[in-house]
Amino acid sequence: MCPPADEQLAPPSKEDCVPIDTSAPAIPTSTGQQNGESHLPAAAQPQHHSNGGQNKKNPYGPRYSDFLSNTSNWKIIESTLREGEQFANAFFTLETKIKIAKALDAFGVEYIELTSPAASPESFNDCKTICSLGLKKSKILTHIRCHMDDARLAVETGVDGVDVVIGTSSFLREHSHGKDMTWITKQAIEVIEFVKSKGIEIRFSSEDSFRSELVDLLSIYRTVDKVGLNRVGVADTVGCADPRQVYDLVRTLRGVVSCDIECHFHNDTGCAIANAYAALEAGATHIDTSVLGIGERNGITPLGGLIARMMVADPEYVKSKYNLHMLREIENLVADAVEISVPFNNYITGFCAFTHKAGIHAKAILANPATYEILNPHDFGMSRYVSIGHRLTGWNAVKSRVEQLNLDMTDEQVKDATAKIKELADVKTQSMEDVDSILRIYHTAITSGELQVGQQKKLQTLLDKHMPTSREQSPAPGKREPVANGN
Ligand code: HCA
Ligand code: CU
Questions:
Q1: What value does the CA radius of gyration of the chain take, rounded to a whole number of Å?
Q2: 252/239 Cα distance (integer angstroms)
Q3: Is the C-beta atom of 233 inside 6 A of ligand 1?
Q4: Which of 34, 148, 267, 302 is deepest in the core (most CB within 10 A)?
Q5: What is the number of other CB atoms lying within 10 angstroms of the CB of residue 66?
Q6: What are phi and psi of 206, to 5 degrees?
Q7: How much is the pLDDT for 62?
Q8: Does residue 30 surpass a pLDDT of 80?
Q9: Closest ligand to 237 CA?
Q10: Does the C-beta of 118 come closer than 6 Å to ligand 1?
Q11: What confidence tier does 56 reach under pLDDT thresholds 50, 70, 90?
């Protein structure tokens, strides 16, 4: 297996993956710039960056028809310290909250949202302390019910803004607070006016927006927009919305209010990132995230997943705003704090997010990373790996390792050695160390004249002698012959 994300930057000798230092961005950029140096030979340099000096449009970016789109103009409201505190495993001490807040600030999120000071005395205290840290970039928000008592407590903490929420769906009106839309509207206006009078930001959001009556939603949003506020919020509290519904609602809302539009998506059906993207395409301005997506039930739009998605839409914009190399550190910090592992298939930082295995993929990646990557691992301080000690390997991937080991071998010889690696890997995946030993033994024997290309039996004898473990891994009698070089 390849190393877990934590160890991905370790030297490759113990691993079964080759780190491939092809630093070129995976996405053609608008400037045609290439970050970092490539150690690949010129012929293998990525081909997609030059277009005769003219700017080239990002083919994955928004289309001209997307006139409402804010995919190049949006902000993050990072809610690990509010929504994330609602995650089943979460218990954040003040010390942990401070570490997370400082890391998010250094990453560059525009807002950090904290649990309501009305939740508990410690929550009040933590909110005050985090407000007094003097973070450089992130504004501090707290999240409260639409209630004057909560609002009074919130403004006492020194926050830069208050996010107010109240349930507007019939489910929540009947089974949660039991109030009608007239009461909600009156209450909302009172709270908004009060927070505004303190000179700080105010957002009003309707919980369970997608199961609320459209007419109720639009009417209350229009009213609060007229009263004047920074943002209205749309929340898919139960994770029922799909991207088309999100697009429709946000586009309609965009035509009704003049303030900013914040969106909050739960991930019960796996749409949280796609919904966030659809919301931005429809004119939303702010997206709620949490690190690793932690939150109530299975959580909300993950910070790293949103970044991955938005990098594809506009890499230069995302790179200009956020310190992307910190993503892994922040995820590890939060994963430790809530005692979970970073998922193997996590966006960007999952241990196999940039590992290429099949021979056909490896060959193309070595020639041009954009063939099988739309994100460049180097943008995130990550490495690209080609896994080679397995039966799907190909001679191009093996050749890249031969070059890294500085062994002088012809293509014919590399193909010959690859055939042996495939034969052994048909029985058991070979570690990186095993692959290196095979290549070194092969190289020495070929150079000294002891071995000729095609002498597979002789090669096995040499491996038995110099690499005692190889015999145990040899195919049992009667096993099929390895296929010729797979790509
Ligand atoms: C909840 C509330 C909330 C609020 C979202 C918002 C939701 O925890 O139930 O303020 O926009 O999902 O509705 O997180
Ligand atoms: Cu939520």
A1: 28
A2: 20
A3: yes
A4: 302
A5: 14
A6: -105, 115
A7: 66
A8: no
A9: 1
A10: no
A11: low
Cβ(421)–Cβ(435) under 8 Å?
yes
Residue with more model confidence, 300 or 473: 300
Mean pLDDT of 111-133: 98
Q: Which residues of 94-109 are buried (b: 16+ CB within 10 A; e: fewer)?
A: eebbbbbbbbbbbbbb
Ligand 1 in contact with 165 (CB < 6 A)?
Answer: yes
Residue 21 banded pLDDT, cuts 50, 70, 90: low
The predicted structure's pLDDT at residue 31:
33
Is the distance from CB of 116 to CB of 144 less than 8 angstroms?
A: yes
Q: Which two tokens stand for residue 161?
A: 């803004």
Tokens of 61: 């970016």
Beta strands 17-20 and 75-78 are unpaired
Q: In Å, what is the CA distance from 466 to each residue of 261, 418, 451, 460, 462?
A: 67, 18, 14, 10, 6
Distance linking the first and last C-alpha atoms of the chain? 22
Mean pLDDT value of segment 410-432: 95
Closest ligand to the CA of 234: 1
Helices (H), 2-147: 94-107, 121-131
The answer on pLDDT for 64 being more than 50 is yes
Contact (Cβ atoms closer than 8 angstroms) between residue 363 and residue 396: yes
Asked whether residue 43 carries a pLDDT value surpassing 50, the answer given is no
β-pairing, 139-145 vs 111-114, is parallel
Cα(173) to centroid of ligand 1, in Å?
Answer: 15
CA distances from 336 to 95, 339, 445 (A): 13, 5, 49
Q: Is the pLDDT of residue 34 over 50?
A: no
| Residue 267, helix vs strand vs coil | coil
Is the distance from CB of 23 to CB of 38 less than 8 angstroms?
yes
Strand order, beta sheet including 355-356: 17-20, 384-387, 355-356
Query: Which residues sit opposite 143 in a β-bridge?
Result: 163
pLDDT attached to residue 16: 60
Look at residue 23 in the predicted model and tell me its pLDDT: 53
Atom of ligand 1 nearest to the CA of 167: 13
**What's the 50 CA to ligand 2 centre distance in angstroms?**
44
Q: Atom 12 (ligand 1): residue with closest C-alpha?
A: 237
Q: Confirm or reject: Cβ of 296 under 6 Å from ligand 1.
A: yes
Catalytic residue among 361, 378, 390, 443: 361
- Protein residue closest via CA to atom 7 of ligand 1: 237
Q: Is the CB of 97 under 6 A from ligand 1?
A: no
Stretch 256-266: mean pLDDT: 98
Residue 356 appears among annotated catalytic residues: no
Between 18 and 189, residue with greater pLDDT = 189
DSSP label of 18: E
